[in-house]
Amino acid sequence: MFDQPFVRDSFIRQIDPRMRVLLAVLLAVALALLRQVTACCLGLGLGCVLLGLARAPLRPLWRRLAAVNMFILFLWLVTPWTTPGTVVWQWHFIQVSREGLYLSLLVTLKSNAIACVFLSLVATLPAATLGHALERLGCPDKLVFLFLFTGRYIHLLAAEWEDLVTAARLRGFRPRTDLHTYRTVASLLGLLLVRSHERAQRTHEAMRLRGFSGRFHSLDSFYLRPVDICFALATASCLACILWTEAGGSILWADR
């Protein structure tokens, strides 16, 4: 299965998976539409609170946030001096605009807030539970089918790739930037696709022999409880405060 270090006992784990997925999507859309720094800071604070309720482990959390911010770093290196606006710093022909800095800050805050929300609400779900929750929410059966099988067999493909690379190294293969390396890597990828296809055929035949009809059936029953409704109302109230701050900041910005 996928590496899921965020799946652990916590308050968030008790919330109905369908509610968590819906809240994550709602918060992500709302946070992505924010335009005020204050509202974005509040959204990031809400994401941190959710991470605390999920008891997220620090080391995997920092690794995932670092991966997100690596892309944002390139934005900070380009946007401030390519966005037209009021110049706040200049060195020869390089001009840093206030609008560029503001845009970079907004993207940074919103990206980290959305990442925190999904890490706390969605990453804490086991892959199988998430797939069944998506099915109950009306997602297409084929997409759910692909998601569940990807979560089940992706580690086997990784193991196959490691075996192929190990076999190539035992035969003296050393990766370089030459045509021989490119051909070897292409051959390894082709072998991986062939083995994946063969494994998929064997799995499909085995499942059909066991009466598989194209749909997974879960033994877990999803139902709303008072704690789910209270959590949804509390989250919606926090989101309403963030949107109210956004609206107030927009009015003040327009008055200026």
Provide an overview of this structure.
By secondary structure, the chain is mainly alpha-helical. The termini are far apart. Strands 1-2 form a two-stranded antiparallel sheet. The mean pLDDT is 87. It is flat and about 60 Å long. It is 72% helix and 4% strand. The chain has two domains: 12-125 and 224-255, no CATH class; 140-209, no CATH class.
Task: Reconstruct the topology from this structure.
Blueprint: H1 17-32, H2 37-54, H3 58-82, E1 87-91, E2 94-97, H4 98-121, H5 127-136, H6 141-170, H7 179-209, H8 226-255
Antiparallel strand pairs: 1-2
Shape verdict:
flat
- Strand order within the widest sheet? 1-2
* Average pLDDT for all residues: 87
How large a portion of the residues is in β-strands, by DSSP E?
under 5%
Can you tag this structure with a few keywords?
8 helices; 2 domains; transmembrane helix; single chain; ABC/ECF_trnsptr_transmembrane; 4% strand; ECF_transporter_component; two-stranded antiparallel ribbon; 256 residues
In short:
With 256 residues, this protein is mainly α. Helices cover 72% and strands 4% of the residues. β1 (87-91) and β2 form a beta hairpin.
